[in-house]
Design brief:
By secondary structure, the chain is an alpha/beta fold. The protein has 12 helices and 7 strands. Strands 3-2-1-4-6-5-7 form a 7-stranded mixed β-sheet, sandwiched between helices. The longest helix is centred in the first third of the chain and has 30 residues, at 2-31.
C-alpha cells in the first residue's frame, strides 16, 4: 500500500511540471489554433483606453505618465486613465497636472482593492480595447500598436504581454530556464483554449468582456475566465513586452508569491464552475493542470518524502531515491544560507523550485485558514 501511494503521489507531484506540458503539446498538435496577427485590419480601427492602477505612487506615477504619453498610437483613438485606489499621498494631484494633456483621473470612492479601482475606470473608459497596466511597468513606445493587432483575429478576446525584469543596476535580466519554460507553456495554452492567467502588469481585453468584473478575483484570471466564457481565447504576445524592476528587497519576493497565490486561489474558489469540463472543455483542463495541480504540488512532494521514508529500507532502489531527495532539499538549504552558490545555474534552479513550493505550501495553509487578499500595496522596486 505504501509503495502504491509513493508512486501515486510521485506522479501527481511531477504532473503539472512535466506530464501536463507533454499532453498539452500533443493536444495543440491535434486541435490547436494559431493566432494570426496579419489578418487584415477591421473597417473601423479600434480605440484604446489605457487603464493604469495606482495606490500611493507619488514617487513613480509621473514617470509612468510620461512613459504612457510616449506610446505610439492615434491620439484621437487613445486615452490614458489613472485609476487611483483612494491614494492618500500626492498621487492624485500629480495626475491632475496632466489633465490638459488628456490624462484622466478616476478615483475610487472607497479603498476596496486594485480590481475595484479598475472597475471604476472601466465604467468611464471609452475604448473598444482596454489595456491594463500598473505604475511599475515601463511599456515600449510601439507596444500598443503591436498589441492591438492581435485583436484583428476575431477569435482573440484578450492579449497578455511578456514580462522582462530590470535589475537594480538598470540591466535587463536574462531569461532563465524556468522563465523560458513558462513562456513556452503559455504559448501552447494560447493555441489550445487560451491562457488561464495573463500578465497582471500589462494586458488587454475587449471592453465587451469586462462587463462581468469580479472585484474579489485577480483581474488577470478574471479576464481569462470571461474570455473563455465568451468562447474566445486569451493569447500571449511574445513581441509585446513590459519591463519592470526587480524588488529592492529580494527577501520580499517570498511574501509577494504568497499574496499572488492566495489571490489566485480566491479567484478559483469564487468561480469553481471553470473546473467543469462539460462547459469549459480544454480551458478547464488547463486550469486544473496549470493552476490547481501546481498549487497542490508541495503537498504531493511532502507525501512523496514521507512515504519514501517509510519504505526506504524495503529495497536499494527506494533507499537511493530517498537519499536523492535528501540531497536535493539539502542543496536548497545550503544555497539559502550561502547565497553566493545561487550563481551556479543548477543550484539556482533547485533553490528556486524549493522556494516556490514552500511559498505555495504556506499560501495554501493561509488560504485554508481563511486568509484573503483584497486591498493591496505595490511592492517597492
Amino acid at each position: 500500500m505504501l509503495t502504491f501511494l509513493f508512486w501515486l503521489f510521485g506522479i501527481a507531484a511531477v504532473y503539472s511540471y512535466f506530464i501536463y506540458p507533454l499532453v498539452l503539446r500533443l493536444l495543440v498538435a491535434k486541435v490547436g489554433a494559431k493566432t494570426n496577427v496579419e489578418i487584415a485590419p477591421p473597417v473601423s480601427p479600434a480605440s484604446v483606453s489605457l487603464i493604469i492602477t495606482a495606490y500611493n505612487e507619488e514617487t513613480r506615477v509621473r514617470a509612468k505618465i510620461e512613459n504612457s504619453l510616449q506610446l505610439q498610437f492615434d491620439t484621437a483613438a487613445f486615452e490614458i486613465i489613472i485609476a487611483s485606489d483612494c491614494s492618500a499621498d500626492a498621487t492624485d494631484d500629480i495626475v491632475r497636472e496632466y489633465a490638459d494633456r488628456g490624462v484622466r483621473l478616476v478615483r475610487a470612492p472607497e479603498r476596496l482593492g486594485k480590481e475595484h479601482a479598475q472597475q471604476c475606470a472601466i465604467k468611464e473608459a471609452s475604448g473598444d480595447i482596454l489595456v491594463f497596466s500598473d505604475v511599475a511597468t515601463e511599456i515600449p513606445a510601439d507596444a500598443i500598436q503591436k498589441l492591438v493587432r492581435y485583436f484583428n483575429d476575431p477569435g482573440v478576446g484578450a492579449v497578455s504581454s511578456e514580462d522582462r525584469f530590470i535589475s537594480q543596476d538598470g540591466a535587463v535580466a536574462g531569461e532563465g530556464a524556468y522563465v523560458k519554460y513558462e513562456m513556452w507553456l503559455r504559448q501552447q495554452e494560447s493555441k489550445l483554449a487560451g491562457l488561464v492567467g495573463l500578465s497582471g502588469s500589462f494586458f488587454a481585453a475587449r471592453k465587451s468582456l469586462c462587463n462581468e468584473w469580479d472585484i474579489h478575483s485577480p483581474s488577470d484570471f478574471n479576464t481569462a475566465l470571461n474570455t473563455a466564457k465568451a468562447g474566445l481565447r486569451a493569447v500571449t504576445a511574445p513581441d509585446v513586452l513590459g519591463f519592470y524592476q526587480d524588488l529592492k528587497d529580494p527577501s520580499k519576493e517570498y511574501q509577494r508569491k504568497i499574496r499572488t497565490v492566495i489571490r489566485g486561489m480566491t479567484g478559483l474558489s469564487r468561480h469553481a464552475e471553470v473546473l467543469g469540463f462539460g462547459k469549459f472543455g480544454f480551458f478547464s483542463f488547463q486550469v486544473i493542470s496549470h493552476k490547481l495541480m501546481r498549487w497542490l504540488t508541495p503537498w504531493f512532494l511532502l507525501a512523496v518524502f514521507l512515504t519514501n521514508a517509510l519504505i526506504a529500507d524495503s529495497s536499494l532502489f527506494y533507499f537511493l531515491i530517498f537519499g536523492a531527495q535528501l540531497a536535493f532539499y539539502g542543496v536548497a538549504v545550503v544555497a539559502h544560507f550561502l547565497p553566493n552558490l545561487q550563481s551556479i545555474s543548477i543550484i539556482k534552479l533547485v533553490y528556486f523550485f524549493v522556494q516556490v513550493n514552500i511559498a505555495l505550501l504556506d499560501a495554501g495553509i493561509k488560504f485554508i485558514a481563511g486568509q484573503r487578499m483584497t486591498t493591496w500595496k505595490p511592492s517597492a522596486r
